[in-house]
Design a protein that fits this description.
The protein is α+β, with helices and mostly antiparallel strands. The protein contains 13 helices and 17 strands. The protein folds into 2 domains: 178 residues, Chloramphenicol Acetyltransferase (2-Layer Sandwich); 245 residues, 2-Layer Sandwich (Chloramphenicol Acetyltransferase). Strand 16 and strand 17 form a beta hairpin. Helix 9 crosses helix 13.
């Protein structure tokens, strides 16, 4: 008998499909720069055929890449099925910059590519290889729909094409035979059975990481922390955020820019403030927002500015799996603080309190309850909740050693987090080979001065360096 298989999307994964529209493309991604190395042709171009052959040999490591969306009849819930007409050539793309191929041209191209929605009739990912970047480099622009991956798992996904050894060669790929899609009766029957028995799992919380790296599995402790977190989150939600030029209606077009800072120096500053690298990041962001508002002639005193900070809650058993396994902390950023070191101290105090607030357990519980609620209702809740924050700031750890694609060394990699309906600028960070790489995704029309915002980040960081005790 032919086995007909599929995978059901979680509520959080499905929600990213539901809230997407033409002005809010819901993909995560990255922009990377490589030295051409062994992938350069004699004429200076890129050996693209070799890259495609290598990617094809690696696809078996992530079956999701050859799956597309289908829907459970009546319930209108999305599932993953194998794409019998999968074509790698559609997803792995090749282009080149006009000479001389400077970074300005590359950033403009990245902004255009990252503005475009993915085709829901096909597997929801693309990788663009861009030759002709100045100084003998090439670029890679990657896009994966947020329903497939969060920032952590998208990094794991792209990592399948790279290794720490320059001479790494993929083994021959096993034959792939797409599984036939299940019929509607099977999908409906499975969903009915799941909805009857599934809610019992709410009373058996799985062991997950907390923001302190500990596990949570005891029911009473879970409920206690979730209740406390819900109360604190409600209190915070009652305090309105300030409406800033970064919180306005957005369109479909994007600017993407980037820069990077030394990781070890950020660690040193965080340690001196009894905080973390992420605390330093948030303090620098607060300073950059303050400078942005001042340039726009906006007030900074009394500004209530909140950042949503995603937190990885994967267990060890879940590492490397696709899908979304994150919670969120809503963090007040001290944009009203003029002193850079005092700004960092306030961030440290805020995040320390949040780590024991139970906020992450609330989001975890809501995510599991949402599996039995209509998607439209969850999307409306999500859109409302997004209006209690001004910006997303997400930080994803990466390898601290060089990685290679067919002998070509990755020099830099800058992540992208999508914009929500009222967010004209979001920031994603990725640590790699001694650096913290910052990716800035902005609405093209609402933030025409994005480059000035980016330039203020190293300025604010340098202020912390000079203010750090022992400097």
């Amino acid at each position: 008998m032919v086995q007909r298989e599929y995978e059901r999307l979680s509520a959080m994964d499905a929600m990213f499909l539901e809230i997407e529209d033409t002005s809010v493309p819901m993909h995560v991604g990255s922009v990377a720069l490589f030295e051409a190395g062994k992938l350069a042709n004699a004429d200076g171009g890129l050996d693209f055929e070799r890259i495609v052959a290598f990617a094809e040999a690696q696809l078996h490591k992530s079956p999701r890449l050859r799956q597309k969306l289908a829907t459970i009849p009546f319930f209108d819930w999305p599932v993953w099925i194998d794409d019998a007409s999968f074509s790698l050539g559609y997803h792995v793309r090749h282009t080149a910059l006009p000479r001389p191929g400077d970074l300005r041209h590359f950033k403009r191209l990245a902004g255009r590519v990252l503005s475009q929605q993915l085709d829901r009739g096909k597997p929801l990912w693309e990788i663009w290889f861009v030759e002709g970047v100045e100084e003998g480099r090439f670029g890679v622009i990657s896009k994966l729909h947020h329903c497939m991956a969060d920032g952590v798992s998208s990094g794991d996904l792209l990592g399948m094409l790279m290794g720490t050894k320059p001479d790494y060669v993929a083994a021959p790929a096993p034959d792939w035979v797409p599984r036939p899609a299940p019929d509607g009766a099977r999908l409906i029957g499975d969903e009915v059975a799941r909805r009857v028995s599934g809610p019992l799992s709410l009373f058996d919380p799985p062991r997950r990481k907390t923001v302190r790296g500990e596990g949570t599995g005891d029911l009473l402790a879970f409920v206690r922390d979730a209740t406390r977190g819900a109360w604190r989150a409600a209190q915070a939600g009652l305090r309105p955020v300030s409406v800033t030029p970064l919180n306005t209606a957005i369109g479909p077009h994007r600017r993407f820019d980037w820069m990077r800072l030394p990781l070890e120096e950020m660690r040193r500053i965080g340690h001196a403030a009894d905080g973390t690298v992420n605390d330093v990041v948030l303090a620098v962001v607060a300073g950059a927002v303050r400078a942005f508002l001042e340039r726009r002639g906006e007030p900074t005193d009394g500004v209530g500015f909140r950042a949503a900070v995603p937190v990885n809650v994967r267990t060890e058993a879940e590492e490397g799996q696709l899908g979304n396994r994150v919670s969120t902390l809503i963090t007040e950023l001290p944009v009203d603080e003029a002193d850079p070191w005092r700004r960092l101290e306030r961030v440290v105090a805020t995040t320390r309190e949040l780590k024991g607030s139970g906020q992450s357990q609330v989001v975890d519980l809501i995510g599991r309850v949402a599996d039995w609620l209509p998607l439209g209702l969850m999307a409306r809740v999500s859109r409302v909740s997004n209006r209690v924050v001004n910006m997303i700031v997400t930080n994803v750890p990466g390898p601290q050693v060089p990685v290679y694609l067919l002998g070509a060394r990755m020099l830099e990699s800058y992540p992208l987090v999508p914009l929500m309906t009222n967010e004209a600028l979001n920031i994603a960070l990725y640590s790699y080979d001694g650096w913290i790489s910052w990716g800035f995704n902005a609405d093209r029309d609402a933030v025409p001065d994005l480059h000035e915002f980016v330039e203020s980040v190293p300025v604010g960081f340098q202020e912390l360096v000079e203010a750090c005790p022992g400097h």
